[in-house]
Specification:
There is one protein chain. Helix content is 77%, strand content 0%. It contains eleven helices and no strands. The radius of gyration is 18 Å and the shape is globular. The relative contact order is 0.16. The mean pLDDT is 91.
Amino acid sequence: MSFSKRLHEKLQPIWRKNHSHPFVRGIGDGSLDQKKFRFYMVQDYLYLIEYAKLFALGAVKASDVETMAKFASLLDGTLNEEMSLHRQYAARFGISETELEQAAPSPTTLAYTHYMLHIAQNGTLPELLSALLPCSWSYWEIGRELSRKPGAIDHPLYGEWIKMYSSREFGQLAQWCIELLDQHTAGKTEEELARLEEIFLNTTRFEYMFWDMAYNESMWPFDENENAAI
């Protein structure tokens, strides 16, 4: 059994919680409060800035030119294509580029991105892949699942999101990361695999926390004008 298949099968109970989160379900049936999605769009933009750095670090960790080039391509695509599309899509919710650039990250956004970057900077290439993979893999699965719901891709606001993450192009990114992880975990000891599994589990948990943060529009537990936290 490949390592990716092992991860996918073993963590299904936790993995599926992302699919069944009310935020995700609300995108699929169109019932999600636009205010919640607007909050998500801002935080997701901040997340993407940090996520892109993983591709840069992937190029540093790679040991062959082909893999380096692929990571460099993903970095370029994220910064110059995906984030441009994100800004255009955000504008439909009344979010200006200035608001995106000046927004403050939520505690969950900070914790999630800092954890991934800590792993990427201090660990191996398989550890980096284990950290970044739950995001792209679960989004691809969620996108495909929601696209099969009658009328979901035709929703005037959320349909574009579903189309983006169910697309063949996005799926190719997830599949490449999956295959690269399997390639670099072949022959690893059980101790090494357990470490990678822990990282994958942690970022899968962070995925759920990110949906939950967006659904509840959660920021710091005190007002910016107060001097002390609650």
